[in-house]
Structure formats: structure tokens, C-alpha cells
Amino acid sequence: MSLSVAFFIAYIVLAYLLFQFSFDKNHEKRDQIFLVQSYLTDFQKSRMRTSYQLGESITQTFPEVQASTRYFHHFRAKVQHMDEDIRAYNFYAADENIFDFFNIPILHQSSAEGLLADRNNILLSQKISKRYFGEEDPIGKTITVKYNGEKHVFTVKAVFYDLPENSSFQPDYLVNINISLDALRLYNNEKDKNAIKTNWSRRDYYTYLLLNKEADGNHLEKKLKGFIAHRSDSVKNTELKLIPLATLYQDLFMEYEVIIILLILGCWWFL
Question: What is the pTM (predicted TM-score) of this model?
């Protein structure tokens, strides 16, 4: 009996480990993609978000960087549905080229191009589409989203397949990046959107870089030392760190304590 329990625990441990180390393998370019982190040297702490213009500035400066993309995770968005306001989890305002970075398979769409080109378009995951439209074709239908006291009516442009659980990129709603400027302006009571775009000290966006195949992320990180420190006194103590997408989950989110506990339990039962 005890041997059966030990084998069962060993199976659970193995399944857990395989899942933990399978993250982001669905993204074909994962070995070339790096998340840019802000590292606050004064506090010796990292922040996963950066300023609006950082990715573009890096891309223009370093030839080994093919492209950059960014998205804003809107935590305050709510969908107005049948006289009820429903929290819209995983509501992302993203650059149009987000599809060049992450594999987001499309289920239905109204056209082949420009899915995020129009600020009035919205893309929904399959599960969100079913939640609000059931088995109906949602393409061309509208959905009302409230954020920071204002309403925005979006037209459904496409529906994408739900991303697997072992993807660190998990959107359920995708809208044009400019929607983030509206949301941040309202939230911070700012009148000028350009002030958000040009403020180096803001950390609102998840920024990713796509490197050339032969480029080395560690080498680029060394070249980035001091890249933003001279741009403003407010970021003079900020450095940039690069986290490979291939190991992002293991580097930032994996619960190693759980693995250790499971391994100890397995060894204890075997003994």
C-alpha cells in the first residue's frame, strides 16, 4: 500500500514538474523574445513594467533588436452586460505587432489584416465570446466596456482560441494600444496623453524585445546599462534587466517551495 502511495506521489511530482517547465513552449519565437524589467537600484527591486516609449527607443538604438511590442493590463475595465457590470479580467491594450511575438491563433475574424489597427475594435478569447454571445457569431457585434467612469463601445473584430494554461501571456480581451492612454489619463486625471508617452519614470507597460537569432540577451543587457539613467533625474537609479520568455515563468513565478515539499513527501513514502 505504501509503495502504491509513493508511486502516486512520484507521478504527481513528475506531472507538476513537466507542467512547470512547459511554459511558453507554444510561442514559436520564445528563444528570441525577452521581457524588459525595470530594476530600481536604490531598493534593489525589479518591476515588470516600463515606460511607454522604452521599447521603441531600444529598437532604434540597438541593431540586434528586430522589434519591440508592449501591452497595458487594464485592471479596472468592466463589461456592461444585461444591466450588470462584469469585471473584465485580462483586458490588454496592445501594439498591433503583438501577433509577431506571441502565437495567438485566430478562430473567427472579419478580415485578415489590421486586427488592432482601429481603436474601436476588440478581440475576444473563445471563452469570453461564449460568455457574452453564446453560440452566435460575435463578429461585427458590439460590446460596451467601462473604465474610469467612461464608456467605450467596441466592435468585435475577431475571436481567438483560448491560450493554453502554460502560457505566461494570457489575454481574454485585446484592444488598440491607444486605449491605454485614455485609461491612464482618466485614472491619473492627466489632460495630455503625450505626457504619458514621454514620461520615462512611468512604469505602466509590459515591454518585450524580439532579438535577431544570433543575438545574445546577456550581452544586450550589459549594453543597456545606463540606457535610461541619463534621460531624467527620476530614473537615474533605474537599470534594465532582460528576462528570456523561454524561462520567464521559471525565473519569476515558479513556486520552488512546492516542488521541494512534493519531493520530500515522495522520498519519505519511499523510505
Answer: 0.90
